[in-house]
TrEMBL record, chains A, B, C:
Enzyme Commission identifier(s): 5.3.1.12
Protein name as catalogued: Uronate isomerase
Transmembrane segments: none
Pathway(s) per entry: Carbohydrate metabolism; pentose and glucuronate interconversion
Stored SUPFAM superfamilies: Metallo-dependent hydrolases
Pfam families (alphabetical): UxaC
Biological-process GO terms, alphabetical: D-galacturonate catabolic process; D-glucuronate catabolic process
GO molecular function: glucuronate isomerase activity
Alphabetical keyword list: Isomerase
Keyword rRNA processing: no
Organism: Tessaracoccus rhinocerotis
Gene3D superfamilies reported for this sequence: Metal-dependent hydrolases (3.20.20.140), uronate isomerase, domain 2, chain A (1.10.2020.10)
Encoding gene, per UniProt annotation: uxaC
Amino acid sequence: MTISVHPDRLLPGDPALRDVARELYRAVAELPITSPHGHVPPQWFADDVRFDNPTALLLTPDHYINRLLHSHGVPLESLGVGREDFTDEEARAAFRTFCSHWKEFRGTPMKYWFEEQLVGVFGLELEPSEASADELYDRIDALLATPAFRARALHDRFNIEFIATTDDPCDDLEHHRRIRQDPDWDGAVVPTFRPDKYLEVVRPDWNRDVDRLGECAGTGVDTYAGWVAAMEARRGFFKDNGAVSTDHAHLDAGTVNLTAAEAEKLYSRARSGQISTPEAERLRRGFLFEQARMASEDGLVMTLHPGAWRNHHTETHHRFGADVGADFPFVTEYVAALQPLLDAFGTNPGFKLVLFTMDETTFSREIGPLASFYPSIYAGAPWWFLDTPDGVTRYRAAVTESCGFGKTSGMIDDTRALLSIPARHDMARRLDSGYLARLVAEHRLTMDEAMDTAHDLVVRQPRRAFNLVGSD
Amino acid sequence: MTISVHPDRLLPGDPALRDVARELYRAVAELPITSPHGHVPPQWFADDVRFDNPTALLLTPDHYINRLLHSHGVPLESLGVGREDFTDEEARAAFRTFCSHWKEFRGTPMKYWFEEQLVGVFGLELEPSEASADELYDRIDALLATPAFRARALHDRFNIEFIATTDDPCDDLEHHRRIRQDPDWDGAVVPTFRPDKYLEVVRPDWNRDVDRLGECAGTGVDTYAGWVAAMEARRGFFKDNGAVSTDHAHLDAGTVNLTAAEAEKLYSRARSGQISTPEAERLRRGFLFEQARMASEDGLVMTLHPGAWRNHHTETHHRFGADVGADFPFVTEYVAALQPLLDAFGTNPGFKLVLFTMDETTFSREIGPLASFYPSIYAGAPWWFLDTPDGVTRYRAAVTESCGFGKTSGMIDDTRALLSIPARHDMARRLDSGYLARLVAEHRLTMDEAMDTAHDLVVRQPRRAFNLVGSD
Amino acid sequence: MTISVHPDRLLPGDPALRDVARELYRAVAELPITSPHGHVPPQWFADDVRFDNPTALLLTPDHYINRLLHSHGVPLESLGVGREDFTDEEARAAFRTFCSHWKEFRGTPMKYWFEEQLVGVFGLELEPSEASADELYDRIDALLATPAFRARALHDRFNIEFIATTDDPCDDLEHHRRIRQDPDWDGAVVPTFRPDKYLEVVRPDWNRDVDRLGECAGTGVDTYAGWVAAMEARRGFFKDNGAVSTDHAHLDAGTVNLTAAEAEKLYSRARSGQISTPEAERLRRGFLFEQARMASEDGLVMTLHPGAWRNHHTETHHRFGADVGADFPFVTEYVAALQPLLDAFGTNPGFKLVLFTMDETTFSREIGPLASFYPSIYAGAPWWFLDTPDGVTRYRAAVTESCGFGKTSGMIDDTRALLSIPARHDMARRLDSGYLARLVAEHRLTMDEAMDTAHDLVVRQPRRAFNLVGSD
């Protein structure tokens, strides 16, 4: 059995809309990719890596795929998750397991992205199945050994104009420096400051991590003021190394404007291990407020990804660690949670805050409305569990009517799966074209307006939201 | 560049559905407008005002438009918000600012309504832009000076059969009396009783306002019973002056059936400034319960608009006051909140309660189901942030399957923007026609049933929900 | 006026999609019905009952229909609800009342199901109306007196391959035994274990009911361990009599893993009438956890239906009892509530948990994601208030993109209305065909994949989710 990717895939099924959508899509299909937030390891580009094997590249690190296989009874260890000792034979068997479960991916974006990669990146039209698994594995493996499939070649072939990674505040950004200083390659790969673990006071390792933060910043961290100074130093270092944003993910979006006295008191209790759980939460919300204060001064865009209940299954967490598919969306609230932060910085011209969610009820109820008043707020593209054909379509329908197109972030792929980046951005362009086509068909936009907007969504909006070169 | 309004605008883009929708729409397009709840100042009709200038009429008071301009960095003061000293030159500049941001309104209902007003009310087909701003301004300004654009002429041209304003309980309703007694004009303009501020005990001015209530009612307000008597008196006065409903907007929909003793105790603490925040909330919920009790006796329909977090940005509130766009939807709950009220009055034949929401998750989860059991409850039309093409469509899809069409309120424009009223009602008729056309195409309704329903939604449902003349 | 049921009813209105949907639907239209959860009384099949009259069969027990009539001011007693003394004349009058309110059912599934029954089951094409009511009543009544309309004949005509009832743990399952041992009929009618009332400690009759549980199980119930032993005994008895699942409905989905000591302490306080409300809730959540523990051992599938606020209107409850339409959906949460249960049993190969909801916000936010990781979890079909054309369509769009088709339950009718069962399953097949057709039109599935999936949804998924014979 062969697979094929239809030229009109993801465009509206209705012929009248499809023709309009196709015209819009064609106008933006070949534009370069801007990826202001994602998780591709910078070392891949610094070292121009050659990827190990199909499983190590496409399956083991992809918690979307692992998750669904696990839900059908496939043990995570058989997919290589958390395994240092995973053999070639096991990698091949894992790929076979995946292929034999191929039909379980129907209707999911994982099927869509995988097919796009097979056909679009590898040029293979063989449908995954138990029978085809070994042939697919071998052919992909052979391609991965060729120069055209090294990290930089893929990046260039994908027409990636700008890509951001996600990095620890103590990272020395050596990979980024090497990329930047390499005369042989001109890829724009910048870091993103991700300080979550230094804010999560309840984490067992928090104290040790804060010590390390103080060391790498070269400041004392015995006081709240010291913690702030360390953060400011590291943010500055990231900014000097090209960072345009900071990324924040906590269970909720809560913020609080602590007085200096309370901040110091809570911090002191935290450092001495005597802080209560509610106090730790309060301190974390104070820390997040402080990050926004810094952002309004240093101009790094703040992106907020709240609402994931992480490591929901204890045994899975203990055996396999974090980010293996056992994270779930949780009821999320923004209007009350962000009020202290927005009251202080929401209209500050130097401040930008991109809001992401896994709780789509907030699109029309909170995120769209907030973005339609506060100059600082942009409605982030659909994220985790909503980065799907229907999820994206519901997002546009839910936010556009309050905040228009001009206060949305543009496509954010948020992925570590380098080979899926073209498919993800192409998907967004197709779906946005479909949404715009509907507005044209309903005479809410003229074709000229839709065409201009389609272009804006790819080019102008990410530049605007992330203060990139070329933004107006 | 010119704009035009297409005859099929807002009808489904799919040709098969569009033909059916068009037929349904045409059958109701010219029916008179019933507007049972809105915010047009009665003085406009009493004095048959001539409107000042395009900005004062179309921009400064429209917090939908201000909000989105503000989100793009336009200062509210430059739009005339909160300005007594706004000059003609500044008004013209504000209009230019709006026109130069025209593209940011794409996909929003503000663009739709504005175009409808330009073409449908002013007969102008010039697209707003920096280049066209002055010409548009001058041409609208010239039209506003003509008799055809005075308040009453517009009202008559818009074919408004019935319109309600929103008024303070202490209002002397002099404007309404003058309209009613004017032999030269027969517009039906009735007041609506809006007592919120007398229920919000936490407001700094609450005590002073209650004093004033006592004065205008001619009753003592030293006791809870006195407060009730004053409310009853003023409700009676409103009813004598044509009112058909009372309107209520608080952060939540909470109600409680207080004993007389607790009510008096809480009221006494409130009047003496010694009430705690939770007690004040409890008293407010008791007050709302009491309003429902009165409604079940005097027959004024109760409309409830909970769930707006008002004045979210302190500085904006201090500088510009309320209702300037810094209000946001908030998670809203009805089933638990209204249980005490519905337990007491929900099946009372004299009682009607129209539920509005800004949290669309409640359409299928709470409002539709409640309206499908309680004879008193009507599912209110989509309000603020949801009074949009897709919002209305989602509303119909979410409530109809539980409560049918016969327990929905019909179109409520809830607007102060007189010139947008035809566009808003026309929009509802178009969207309802589109929804009905889908049911016809899916063979869930016959064309005869759909035609009858389209008529009911415009004529029968507002009459039913608001006890208007002609209701069955 | 006549009614007719169109061959393409509920298929997409768009002609391009409709053709694809029709082809998919035809491939599954005639497949037998599997009904793993519902409320048809087993006595109907044991005794092969002849139904009393149209009102007693179609109206009085149907709280969907009663509810909407009540919302239009029809007293429940006039429909026979809670009436032992309901006369034939009153039954006829009730049917007339229903027919005269026929238009109020437009857009609801009650209209759809009723028409399907009229035409499909009774072969009557007369539209309900005040004028046609008596004729309809007489013609249905005459048909009910014929052998073809006895319970078993209907069951066989409906092609029901498997049907589960819902039963009290103390039920002697005599009806099921008689059916099973009857050599003249081979219908598969199995019981379902529904222990809710023995878990709801706050119920006034709880203690008495637990006493009775102990008696029927033949175990002491003075201790928590005794309660558990009694439950295990009765679950075993149900399993021996063919049960495949247990059903659980509480206000929330909360679970807690109590220590043996705390469980005994709470239980003791409960039995002695000294338990507080929060403790009673905690004990109920401990009981539910315990049921999951038993399920992971005995293999009975657990189905969970949380989130109904029951008996919302006190007077209605006192006069008419439970299940008369005064139950409403309530905000529901799963990710936190089920964490203790899933942490303990979520990956247990012997455990299955089907999650239902009346809060559709949880489809994309919680239920789909949970089913996409935990092998035990299946996303239950849309239930109460969401078992509607648009509700089902939104469900598929919301869960499929995370958990695919293979982790959904297949159609669950959950109904007592035997005559509506074919219409309900047919509706699901039509709507699923429409959803699949859209995926084909958007090139997300090939026609072969869609065809295979359509079949899976009818045949494979209920078998999988409920461990039925033939499951893979």
